[in-house]
Specification:
Pfam families: ECH_1 (PF00378). InterPro entries: ClpP/crotonase-like_dom_sf, Enoyl-CoA_hydra/iso, Enoyl-CoA_hydra_C, Enoyl-CoA_Hydratase/Isomerase. One of its GO terms (molecular function) is catalytic activity. This protein is an alpha/beta fold. About 45% of the residues lie in helices and about 15% in strands. It has eleven helices and nine strands. Helix 1 packs parallel to helix 3, helix 3 packs parallel to helix 4 and helix 4 runs parallel beside helix 5.
């Protein structure tokens, strides 16, 4: 049996999913895709998990699809056919997902970064939508990347395939922050701690809210949004949060330090 390429670990309410295939720059091989999808399912289903961190071993976060496996395969047998499920698992996860990059990402790797809620990388990390340079289209990842990027940057970077740095990735909306290597663990821990303070059901509903199309005018959305808001104020989770606030204590969903 081949060694696992994705490691799964839960500590203090945080599930850490680690890509561990440095020999091919954590490329999205069939085995890695399968194990990553299984790990995401496990984290999403575990009530003890409050936050998911997606990270990696080796110098590269993810190089995109495994081109050795793609070579010679017909359209129906391409590994990219399995990739939408992984992007959807990240995007629709009821638990917030944080991407932690100690190195570069390319193509499908950037698609995963964009599908997470929070993304932090070291200053030295670089990025490129390299698809057009090998004659393919960044089609699947466009569905997670384009909602993040400003339009001018998307046109430039998708069409040229040029490499850009972490500073620009922050400026165009791909990353939340770029830090030094020494600061990476602390920055990710800061986000994880902040996310874990939110009510689990409230976080899931807020993630869903953020993904929905906006009404043309506020007036068109007030009825549905008021129903959602009032329901959470009256819910068991909402009442616990309100009570905890008035009693100057942490709500019962906050993991123990």
């Amino acid at each position: 049996m081949a060694d696992e390429l994705v490691h799964y670990d839960v500590v203090g309410g945080t599930a850490t999913i680690t890509l561990d295939s440095p020999h091919n720059r954590n490329a999205l091989s069939a085995q890695l895709r399968r194990e990553l999808s299984e790990s995401l399912d496990k984290a999403r289903a575990d009530d003890a998990v409050r936050v998911i961190v997606l990270t990696h071993t080796g110098p590269v976060f993810c190089a995109g699809m495994d081109l050795k496996e793609a070579r010679g395969a017909g359209a129906g047998n391409q590994g990219v056919n399995e990739f939408p499920k992984i992007l959807d698992q990240l995007w629709t996860s009821p638990k917030p997902v944080v991407a932690k990059l100690a190195g570069p990402a390319r193509a499908g790797g950037i698609g995963m970064v964009a599908a997470t809620d929070i993304a932090v990388a070291v200053h030295e990390a670089t990025f490129a939508f390299s698809e057009v340079r090998i004659g393919v289209v960044p089609a699947v990842i466009s569905l997670t990347v384009l909602p993040r990027l400003n339009a001018r940057a998307a046109h430039e970077l998708f069409l040229t395939g040029d490499t850009f740095d972490a500073k620009r990735a922050v400026e165009i909306g791909l990353l939340n922050s770029a830090v030094t290597a020494d600061e990476l663990d602390g920055e990710v821990a800061r986000y994880v701690k902040a996310l874990a303070l939110g009510g689990p059901k409230a976080l899931a509903a807020t993630k869903e809210l953020l993904s929905k199309p906006r009404p043309v005018t506020p007036g068109e959305g007030f009825e549905a949004m008021n129903k959602l808001s009032a329901g959470f104020f009256a819910s068991e989770e909402g009442q616990e949060g309100i009570t905890a606030f008035t009693q100057k204590r942490k709500p019962n969903w906050v993991p123990e330090a």
